[in-house]
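JOB MANIFEST
job_type = single_chain_structure
chain_count = 1
residues = 335
[input]
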Amino acid sequence: MIRLNPVKILEKVGRYEQIALLFSLVILCVVSSFLSPVFLSVNNLMNVLRTASLTAICAMGMMIVVLIGELDLSVGSSQAFIGIVSVYALNSTGNIPLTILIVIIAGVCIGLINAVLVVQAGINSLIATLGTMAIIRGASYVSTGGISIQAKVSGFEKLGTGHLGPFPVPLIIAVVLFSLLWYVLKNTVFGRNIYAVGDNASAAELCGISVKKMTLIVYIIAGVTTATSSMLLASRLNSAQPNAGLGFEFQVISAVVLGGVSMSGGKGSVSGVMLGVLILSVLQNMLILVGVSSFYQEIARGLVILLAVYIDTRNKSMTDKRALAYAEKTTNEGN
């Protein structure tokens, strides 16, 4: 008698999800090339990848937060605030490496604040980060008086606009972080613990995994990735904008969920998230090239978010049904 292995079945389903995402990306690229001949130009493709890289860098941090079953809505406001921190630090010190260090520390601090609110105060992550989102956005406007701050040190703009060979610097950074996160999730105890906590936090505690410690570390990592993305955006603009990152959190979350990461935690892959980022970036670029109003672009973004959540809910329901059916079958065979 052939026995079905539920783990292998779920792995195949995961692979098919990524194949579907890749197929969707290819179809979207083909449609975009027909709608606008500019789409396949080298300059446009590099711009798409440069913009997608900023989302991807932040999405990698968001991914591991969602994997443990939490959320971070503060990334959009953080993109503005940390951009302001980076430009203020740059103009004060005139030192780019020191500015990078300050930005990373700022990211760690924001991640730590979110983690303390969730872990120590016991506030639901949705509510906690909604609060920090408002506080950080307000701090951005207060610290700048609501006006942009220009960077005064030459060379800073190369972080966001420069190239290493033919490739944009942000793309290189995104690829390095992607490779690192892929390795950590696939081949380390820390990576396996992330999935374990998201799958069943109580069972993970019984196995000796500190859920509070994992949550703390994950939020700090998310803070650092958000800070990196924020600094690259400020570098690209060569200025800090207090209104930067408006709606960015929803773009990042929708890319993560569209990429197959379950909102309930414990399921998802970094390669799926990257495909989700590319799909959203190509879609946005296509809408811009064909002259669609920014108002309609917001509608399209909202529809994508709803689609991503629907897919996640449907996949979870199907997975639960498969697991229940397998359990019932095993029980019946045992009897």
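[summary]
The CA atoms of residues 61 and 251 lie 14 Å apart.
Strands lie at 149-150, 163-164, 167-168, 239-240.
exit_status = 0
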